[in-house]
From TrEMBL, chain A:
This is Queuine tRNA-ribosyltransferase accessory subunit 2. Keywords: Cytoplasm, Metal-binding, Transferase, tRNA processing, Zinc. Binds 1 zinc ion per subunit. Residues 24-395 form the tRNA-guanine(15) transglycosylase-like domain. One of its GO terms (molecular function) is metal ion binding. It comes from Mollisia scopiformis.
From TrEMBL, chain B:
PANTHER family: QUEUINE TRNA-RIBOSYLTRANSFERASE CATALYTIC SUBUNIT 1. Belongs to the queuine tRNA-ribosyltransferase family. Its EC number is 2.4.2.64. Residues 257-263, 281-285 are annotated as: RNA binding. Residues 22-379 form the tRNA-guanine(15) transglycosylase-like domain. This is Queuine tRNA-ribosyltransferase catalytic subunit 1. GO terms for molecular function: metal ion binding; tRNA-guanosine(34) queuine transglycosylase activity. GO terms for biological process: tRNA wobble guanine modification. The keyword Iron does not apply.
Length: 461, 408
């Protein structure tokens, strides 16, 4: 770990940097005061500064991810009436201090959540619309710069003119690059030199933002510390100048399956944010895939008459009620080494919050293991072959959800949910809206079942 | 009066110290899954889980004996699953001690159509209206399947405030008869400790008779039941005080359903050893932090910019300083309270720690024979030194055991 003071983010591409080819690559990120981590890798997504279901001590003890994605909109609902409390938090490392995040983890601060709720009002030339716990607001570029100056995340994503929701028309597209360029230049001009800033790449065709991207490549390649892709498909079109190629690439592209992650890695993506981890957890689905193939010991169960393995197990069905095996037999996470399926099924069925906590710990571990295997595969020059094998072994999408999610508290569920957007979203993905049904206290079984359980016996009336 | 042969026991009780003024005691209770120090507060993990805390986090609060509710485990996952899994410890990955209640209290209070007959608790299945019966034998069989280290007899529970003396006597006498049925039905007396439950409402004479009858059954431990049901605190104290005077010195005394800090310290002064309550964990969900200066609702706007710990000087992982601490602030709890479950988890950790730490400091004070001073400081802190705010019931109850909170 480097010292707290000193230079900003260092990214090192391991192996030969081939400027002609955008293929999978290995890298290492070093940020003063944080633990180094190797790429490809992922940042956990937070909600109001916490990884849902996991307290900071659980994160410290039972997870392996190197950093977290935080959204400014989760902290500034009080901006309309006064100063958001986080701005008065004593520093340094305000984001860590405010959220009790373990100091070894990297903080990445973006304007919006991932996924973000569509705002009814679009962005303007000077500001973007955000969705806070008290409703929609706008954040001007000026305000954004000022937040970043105070909060000093390890990585700041510059403000981008991303039109969540509908596809932008030609007129709008023309403005997107200009606005984003202006806001980026305002941020880098104002921030101290040691601040790592990632330049956003917009979710539109390269040609529609080529002026902006060329500006980044020509004018800011030495100033920005990385690129943040709202659409990974633009990556191959980025000018492959020596400096640009050496920048780390972050995906905000919201992959909906491991296959999507692999595809982005094959394009040369380095760091990911992965909303489907949380979707799976909330749906009670324990991820079980391994790269490139299941361990020999893995259950060879198949579904739908195919030989493809599911990517996860739905933990709701009562068929797990007697199972004393862990969620994933070879998994070394806290959940799998301390608890069995029977307990997790019981917790979901009893709507005990711990059920989601345990699945969340496991799911993040599965993804960490996945990335570590991917890095190994790239190192061995086997990545392409391994991806093909993975595709032959596993289904392409996650299982459908059957059970209810946790009791919905988050304000971010109150709207129509993540905007209908550009890409396919897994059918099970949207968890919005359900309420916990049924009281915990009254049996929902019939008398025969109660008697069968030994709970009580039937008598003559 | 019957005097059955001495029951097997799966615990040892060692009296370590006695307060020279009050009736408070410090003891060591050796249970099948390790020792616990009395006086003790037991957090309630109703459905084999404590409000989102991992068993490891619960262990880190120092808890070594928690509650599960038989009624809930009987419904989910049910006796059959419990038997296949190998009991509640294996189900929840908790290697320390568990106490279960009989399930009767929940049944009577949660199922509106429940009524009690000599056979057991009759109720209509809420699902299909079929009449059903929970007997003392069912309750014990279920608790045997759960495998808890302390199990409770099924008792005929009646709210203490019931004005019906005849019904109260019937409930008390029936509870004694049901105790005999529980003892006879208990399959694992050498591995699970059956506690009787003293009944008799607020009628001290009836409580005395119940104590005599039940003490004669020689169960490994004794609970004082039927309280915490809305009776006046002064009445509560009289009942506890009366019962503890009649109970054997060398057995643990458990007062069910008690958990407010003042109630705990006064009950200890009156000679009780063990307590449980859902309040500390339930209230965490509403953003409430228990502190020695009273309860703070961290959802209140005044905490939005408060970057102090939840409670200064608290040793829980949220509040303590130094290596391995989280540095959770009131502002952060305010930020996530009611929006992310993590907020409730953090306060649950703090509140459970507070309760356990309170009892540890009570025990320390008893061992150093300075419990009366401890009590004075406790009430002073709680009420900001304003004696006019001290609750009358506590002042009166403590006077009966030789402590005058009002003197300087
Ligand atoms: Zn696992
Ligand atoms: Zn604390």
């Amino acid at each position: 770990m480097a010292s707290e003071k000193g230079s900003k983010l260092l990214f090192e591409v391991l192996g030969n940097v081939d400027t002609s080819n955008a293929g999978p690559r290995l890298g290492r990120i070093a940020i003063p005061g944080r633990k180094d981590f190797e790429t490809p890798n992922f940042f956990a997504i937070t909600s109001r500064g916490v990884t849902p279901h996991m307290t900071p001590d659980v994160v410290a003890a039972h997870t392996q991810f190197g950093g977290v994605h935080m959204a400014l909109e989760d902290f500034i609902e009080k901006a309309r009436k006064g100063t958001p409390p986080i701005l008065t938090c004593p520093g340094p490392s305000i984001l860590h201090r405010f959220t009790a995040l373990p100091r070894s983890l990297v903080t990445l601060l973006a304007p919006r959540r991932s996924p973000a709720v569509t705002a009814p009002v679009g962005n303007s030339n000077t500001a973007v619309s955000i969705f806070t716990s008290t409703g929609f607001q706008s954040v001007s570029s000026k305000a954004y710069v000022s937040y970043m100056k105070t909060l000093r995340p390890d990585i700041a994503i510059s403000l981008a003119d991303v039109p969540y929701g509908s596809l932008p028309g030609t007129k709008r597209v023309a403005k997107m690059g200009d606005r984003t360029q202006l806001w980026l230049s305002e941020l880098v001009n104002e921030m101290p030199e040691e601040q790592a800033v990632f330049a956003p790449i917009l979710p539109i065709d390269f040609l529609d933002q080529s002026e902006y991207i060329n500006y980044v490549a020509d004018e800011l390649a030495d100033t920005v510390s990385g690129l943040a892709f709202y659409d990974s498909n633009v990556l191959p079109d980025i000018p492959a100048t020596t400096t640009i190629v050496k920048l780390p690439r972050l995906s905000l592209d919201e992959p909906s399956s491991p296959a999507h992650i692999l595809r982005q890695i094959s394009l040369g993506m380095d760091i990911f944010t992965i909303p489907f981890i949380g979707f799976a957890t909330d749906a009670g689905i324990a991820l079980t895939f391994r790269f490139p193939r299941p361990l020999p010991s893995a259950e060879t169960q198949t579904t739908n008459g195919t030989t493809l393995l599911p990517l996860g197990i739905d933990m709701w069905p009562s068929s797990h009620a007697h199972s004393l095996t862990p969620l994933s037999p070879s998994c070394t996470c806290y959940t799998c080494t301390s608890h069995h399926k029977a307990y997790i099924q019981h917790l979901l069925s009893a709507k005990e919050m711990l059920g989601w906590t345990l699945i969340q710990i496991h799911n993040h571990h599965i993804i960490s293991t996945f990335f570590s295997s991917v890095r190994e595969s790239i190192k061995n020059g086997a990545f392409e072959r391994d991806c093909e094998e993975f595709a032959r072994a596993y289904e392409s999408e996650l299982p459908e959800k059957s059970g209810q999610g946790p009791r919905v508290r988050g304000y971010h569920f109150k709207s129509e949910g993540p905007g209908e957007e550009k890409k396919n979203r897994a059918a099970w993905g949207n968890l919005g809206g359900e309420k916990q049904v049924g009281g915990e206290l009254v049996p929902d079984e019939g008398a025969d079942e109660l008697e069968g359980k030994g709970f009580a016996e039937k008598i003559e009336a | 009066m019957v005097s059955p042969a001495s029951m097997p026991s799966a615990l040892t009780f060692e009296l370590i110290a006695r307060c020279s003024t009050t009736k408070a005691r410090a003891a060591l209770l050796e249970l099948p899954r390790g020792p616990v120090q009395l006086p003790l507060f037991m957090p309630v993990a109703t459905q084999a889980s404590l409000k989102g805390l991992t068993p490891q986090q619960l262990e880190e609060t120092g808890c070594r004996l928690c509650l599960n509710n038989t009624y809930h485990l009987g419904l989910k996952p049910g006796q059959e699953v419990l038997e296949k899994v190998g009991g509640a410890h294996k189900l929840q990955g908790w290697n320390h001690n568990i106490l279960t209640d009989s399930g009767g209290f929940q049944m009577v209070s949660l199922l509106k159509l429940a009524n009690i007959t000599e056979e057991g608790v009759r109720f209509l299945s809420p699902h299909d209206g079929t009449p059903m019966l929970l007997t003392p034998e069912h309750s014990i069989a279920l608790q045997n399947a759960i495998g808890s280290d302390i199990i409770m007899q099924l008792d005929d529970v009646l709210v203490t405030t019931s004005p019906d003396t005849k019904r109260m006597r019937e409930a008390m006498e029936r509870s004694v008869r049901w105790l005999d049925r529980c003892i006879a039905a208990h399959a694992n007396p050498t591995r699970q400790n059956l506690f009787c439950i003293i009944q008799g409402g607020l009628d001290l004479e009836m409580r005395k008779q119940c104590c005599e009858e039940m003490v004669a059954r020689d169960t490994p431990g004794i609970a004082i039941g039927g309280l915490s049901g809305g009776e006046a605190k002064a009445d509560y104290c009289r009942v506890v005080n009366t019962c503890t005077s009649l109970l054997p010195e060398l057995k643990p005394r458990y007062v069910m359903g008690i958990g407010y800090p003042e109630d705990l310290v006064v009950s200890v002064a009156l000679g009780a050893d063990m307590f449980d309550c859902v309040w500390p964990t339930r209230t965490a969900r509403f953003g409430n932090a228990i502190t020695k200066y009273g309860m703070l609702n961290l959802r209140h706007a005044s905490y939005a910019n408060d970057f102090g710990p939840v409670e200064e000087g608290c040793g829980c992982i949220c509040c303590r300083t130094g290596e391995g601490s989280l540095g959770v602030t009131r502002a952060f709890v305010h930020h996530v309270a009611a929006k992310e479950t993590v907020g409730a988890h953090l306060l649950t950790i703090h509140n459970v720690w507070y309760q356990l730490a309170l009892m540890r400091s009570v025990r320390q004070a008893i061992m150093e024979d300075r419990f009366p001073t401890f009590l004075k400081q406790f009430f002073f802190d709680k009420h900001g030194g304003d004696k006019s705010k001290y609750p009358d019931w506590a002042v009166e109850a403590l006077l009966t055991v030789g402590v005058d909170l009002m003197e300087d």
